[in-house]
Amino acid sequence: MKAIEATVRRAPAIILVDPRQLVRECFSRCLAEAIPDHEIITFASIDAWDRAGIGHRDGDMVVLYYDPREAVRSGPQREAALLSRIGPGANVVLLCDSEDPGEIIERLNEGARGYIPTNVSLKVAIEAMRLVRAGGVFVPASCLLQRRGPADETASADPRSQFTPRQTAVLERLQKGKANKVIAFELNMQESTVKVHVRNLIKKLGVTNRTEVVARTYRRP
Question: What span, in angstroms and rounded, lies between the C-alpha atoms of 184 and 146?
């Protein structure tokens, strides 16, 4: 029956995945009014979406609440649940409490088409989704401004400012001399994921090994 329902669904859909019930219900009603040619489907989690068995079609939009702090605590399993489990063909827009530029770039590189901070107005959020629906990519202007002017001086003064929360968590343990296996255990990551983060740290800092990473970041505590 679920497979049949997925087949007969014809209207383009906005699939809203957010564990916060009040936000989910209010936002879905606003979207139904603002974008009436789309079917609005809501779920509390990706697991609930999977159980419903409706999937998505090319061109559907998936609006997903993303908490980078939870990603740090939960490791790669959480990250896989967010983007790779959605699969290709959907326009993924993330709702996030963070405005960290490094975090935004990392999520866009993983396939997100929009990144909407939760401190923007409803009007801005809806216009951002319309932009993504039309084939664009939305990045908040405030985050771009953080990467210009005085922010550039801050980044050069403290190289750690360019790291994502997960990279920072790995860096803090590198600075304590911990091995990859220990870091992986403490952050609930696969050791291979820790190695990827270390490589990204090396690349961002323009150094050649993990020892230089530690030396460079300790130079200006």
Answer: 31
Whether 207 and 94 have beta carbons less than 8 Å apart is answered as: no
Q: Note the pLDDT tens digit of each residue in 51-81.
A: 888 877 777 899 999 887 665 555 544 444 4
Q: Residue 42: name the closest of 57, 23, 59, 58 by CA.
A: 23
Under 8 Å between Cβ of 165 and 195: no
Q: How buried is residue 189: exposed, middle or buried, by Cβ count under 10 Å (0-12/13-18/19+)?
A: buried
| CA separation for the pair 16, 44 (Å, rounded) | 8
CA distance 63 to 114: 9
Q: How far apart are CA 46 and CA 208, in angstroms?
A: 39
Identify residue 63 by its one-letter amino acid code: V
pLDDT digits (tens, 9 = 90+) for 99-118: 777 777 777 777 788 899 88
State the first-to-last Cα distance of the chain, in angstroms, to the nearest integer.
59
Q: Show Cβ contacts of residue 16 under 8 Å, excluding neighbours closer than 6 positions.
A: 24, 27, 28, 31, 40, 41, 42, 43, 63
Question: What would the two tokens of residue 53 be?
Answer: 């068995």
Does this model's pTM top 0.85?
no
Three-class DSSP category at 65: strand
Contacts of residue 69, Cβ cutoff 8 Å, sequence gap at least 6: 165
Q: Which tokens in the block code for residue 42?
A: 């809501």
